[in-house]
Amino acid sequence: MSFSMASLIEKLNARDKDERYMAMHDLSADLDRDTIKLENELERRVVSIILKHLEDTSTDVKQQAVRTIASLARKVQEPQLEEIADKLATHIINKTDEERRDIGSIGLKTLVGVVNQQTAPAVLKRVTPKLQIGIQGETEVAHYCLEILNDLLKNFGMLMQRELPALQTSILPMLASPIAATRKRVSICVASLAICAPDQLFANLVSTIFVSMGEAKSPDEIRTFIQTIAGISRSVGHRLGRELKRIIPLLIELCESPKHQEDVEMLENCLQAFESFVLRCPKEIGSHLDKIVNISLKFIKYDPNYADDEDDGDDMEEDEQEEDEFSDDGDYSGDDDNSWKVRSAAVKCLAAVIRTRPEMLKELYEAVLPQLIIRFREREEIVKMEIFSALKDLLRQTQGRTANPDAMDEDHPSGNDSHHLPNTVVSMLDVDKLVKAITKQMKDKSFKTKERCLELLRELILVLNGGLNNYLVNLVPDIAKAIEKSAKTSLKVEALTFLCLLLEKHPGADFSKHVKDLGPSVLASVADSNYKISAVALRVCGRFTTAKHGGKRLLQGEDQFIQNMYTSAFGRLNSQDQDLEVKEAAILTMGEIIATLGDIVGPSNLNGCLPVLLERLRNETTRVTSLKAIATVAKSDLQIDISIICKDVILECSTFLRKNDRALKQAALMTLNSLIASYGKMIGDSLYETVMKELTILVSDAELHLTHLALQLCSCMVSKSPNENVNLIHSYILPRVLVLLQSPLLQGIARNSLRSLFANLVQAGSGSKYKELLGQLLGIVDGGNQLSRQSLSSIAQCVSSLCGAVADSERIATLQGFMNTLGNPSGAEQMKQLLLHCVGEIGREFDLSQFSLENVIMNSFTSTSEDTKAAASYALGSIAMGAISKYLPYILTQIESQAEYRYLLLQSLRQLITLKASDGGIGKGHDSLAGHMSTVMNLLMDQCDSDDEGVRSMVAECLGKLALIAPTEVLPKLKELITRDSVETRATAVHSLKFTITDNAPVQELATCITDFLLLLKDDHIMVRRAVLTTLNSATHNKPALIRPLLKTDWLLPSLYGESVYKQDLVRTVNLGPFQHKVDDGAELRKLALAAMDTLLDKCAEQLDTSAFLHHLQDRLSDELDDIKQAAYQMLCKLAVREPFFVREVLDTLADPLKTVLNKKTKENASPQDVERHNELQRSAMITVATLNKMHDSNTCHKFVSMYESILQDAKLKALLESVSNDTEGSTSVAMEF
């Protein structure tokens, strides 16, 4: 290889320029190879020859030599790198030869782009001094030097700390240069210098610019200083924030000064600076936002050369009366008019506020929305597009939010405020005015304007969840025009998409009179060659098909349109050569047409279409979509005759159940269920057996949702054809079911489907299979398997389903047998546990008061097995549900008299109250709680100060569940309990509220009293504060609407943050013989406080002061407990993803605690558990580092960058960083890694 390289060097000395060019090209290719390593002498020769040819007489050779520098720089050692840099820098400052300056500039930019942090010092050493000389030289030289200097500062500014003061001193005066190009380059360079400048130098930089701007006389200088400040804000807004209180008043003064009202460039620069401050300085800009919004609203209509006399109609009378302070009655000429730049900058500034300040939604609706609507009259299309975009942002911010999230909507007692908007928002939205303004713009000649209008309407529908019924007459003609054959493709797609959404979100609207206007163009679009248009048009046909009005099909008496629509859809369905999106849309639309209009389409068309659907089902790319379409047809009320494909479809579905594709199996099971439910009578035994065989493998705990669908299908088959399927179930499915019941994972809908299957089996077999099935279920325990409580509960529920499906005599006999077994002292404990669960499950549904079950259960309380005691407690509470009048008084009496079993009896009472709460409330009659409420409450209140913490916990749960049943009766008594002197009583009362604030919580009643409970966060006793924190977390998670109003108070968040702080007075020392052990009583409080903060971050982020939240979170990164550090890491990752601007402000302060954890070593004698905990903590810290590093502009924070580079230089830490980066994708996924 050395010989080859030497040969190329010889050729580079050839007289023929083509030979020199080819030799340089080959040399570059050789240097790019990873296997090439240059010896010292050869390295020097290569560098020398390439630098020589930078001055070659041939331009092509020179250009190739410059390109070769990138390859060369990666191979050579530091001395040669210095030589290259020195030569290129010398070329740049050449005052006479412009071609050399060009070559030097290109070469040096190339060099800067390929060197790394390790090799960069060699380049900086040679280049920086010459650049400092160059920027003071001639204009052209200075421009070259400033461009290179900017690249160096951006890439290696942290390595140039010594040179920064001198560089700053050199370039700042150049901001006053009379040459605009120089000022622009210096401004960019200053912004890059601000990234790496130390704090003191940065402060000096900003102060110098600020003073200079105040002293500047020339408008050009002032504009340059404003541009520079905006550039610094975009680069390091988090550092500039503290200076805003000086900068913004000056900029506002410039905007309001009469002498600058016609200086378009200055006004534009000021508004661009405001936009940058809003985006990059979120914390400090808050107090200035009102002024910025007002300034932007003023200049959004800035047009001094144009008198706006446009009549906006009756709906804008107010707008006509408003005088435009910038209007001029003189003649207008569009030549050289650039006032639109000011309006554009003003709109962008407003858009920045809209996107970043959701908490200002109400104020934005009141002040900004009307002005944006008025400015629809904007004559410059660029500005008009930005106005539409800003309004679109405003509507998007409204989705999923409320302008007044603290309000309790009377119509929504659940308090679930994320799915509806209060009337205040709708009224502020002024739908009528907005739609009329949009409708007027739809007449505009510009297709871009029409597209933006349709986008706005689409966002409006999503915000209102419909709401445009009254405007259909005005909207439909414009939509029809937008989907005409001559319309632009993008406009047609947008119009069809909007029409599809319009039909979807207005299910009861009368579109029948609009079908004639829209139908022909929609059908023509179906046949369009553009796949996007065709696919959306097909979806519109589907919406037309399923739409109803007045409870009837929309397409009534539209036989010809229906036939044409069928023909168009079938043409797309039957075509092979088309995009997948079109194929899928055609399949789904055809399924809807057959299911809804099959009686009109006619048998002949169906017989031609159904085989095509079957063919699509057999195609791998369209089979899932085809399954959905066939399921739609099967569920049709028209009972469509699909006999020609029914058998084949079922066979195909059966084969799909073997595939390793979850979505396919799920769709196949759902389709089979629909087919058998509708056409079960026409399916033969062999087909049922084929399906049953394939279902066998799906009945397992590996995928419970598929298990649920499989069992649901089995139940359907038994219901539709019991004679054929009962025996098949016993042969194929039941063995798998008996194994499944032993799994502790079985729960939810899968277990419910299993219960339904057992009930159907008994009913289908007329009870003949009852004893056999019962024996098989009980036999699971007889087999000697040690089962979990969850498994025993699942078996018991299936037994209950069996008993519920047979005659009373059978059930009574079964229960009598259970009692005999339970009364046998020598019986197996696990069988007793199962039978107790069985008795409880049966007792939930039937009155078992005729049996003396209480004696059997009380005897079970004496068992040595804790599982038996728990099963007995569960059984007693459950049978009380079916016979309250007998068993509730018994439970209450035993609680008072049997102190030994009080905890178990309270569990029984809890079970009863829980069942009653889920059953719908207190009830009436002899089997209700109404007559016992006073007794129950008094008993529970007496137990609130029990010495047994387990009893108190159970009492709290009982009280909380009772409050769900009778809130007006229970909550006042709980409120009275929190005023008592007993610490235990107060803690129990507060803790009980946790069990009240669930999905079905009485929000209105809780809203009146929750403040009193949460104020106990100031209680003197740890036990009470711990209960309050638990309740606060639960309330925030389940009903955030209850907490949001309290976040604005001056006590809740400060108290919460206070509990997250490490407190030395809560640490005590315990003597353990010769050793002393420190016990941190505040550790649990800190964990609970951080958990509550985490939930607030998830549920109420808009109401939090992110800066204050982050300040308290920072301190927890240095907590003594690893659990607390990990909780802090998790929240920090969330904030880094959601609020990166705030996190970037404190990024440097986060570096030290993270570095401490990452560099910490375990002791040599550490246990495996300690090592594992240490590794887990380090991994969490590294995930946090990776997330923070992915934030925009994280490289502008010096300490963090230094820490990150130290990680890369440590082999072990670098491997850990690569591991967490490979295991996660994107910032959000990294945050969720926890």
TrEMBL record:
Start-end of each HEAT repeat: 46-83
Record's compositionally biased regions (Basic and acidic residues): 410-420
Keyword Aminoacyl-tRNA synthetase: no
Region annotation Disordered: where it falls in the sequence: 308-337, 401-422
Keywords carried by this UniProt record: Repeat, Ubl conjugation pathway
Record has Repeat as a keyword: yes
InterPro entries assigned to the protein according to its UniProt record, in alphabetical order: ARM-like, ARM-type_fold, CAND1/CAND2, HEAT_type_2, TATA-bd_TIP120
Ranges for domain TATA-binding protein interacting (TIP20): 1050-1205
Biological process according to GO: SCF complex assembly
Protein family: Belongs to the CAND family.
Full protein name: TATA-binding protein interacting (TIP20) domain-containing protein
Organism: Guillardia theta (strain CCMP2712) (Cryptophyte)
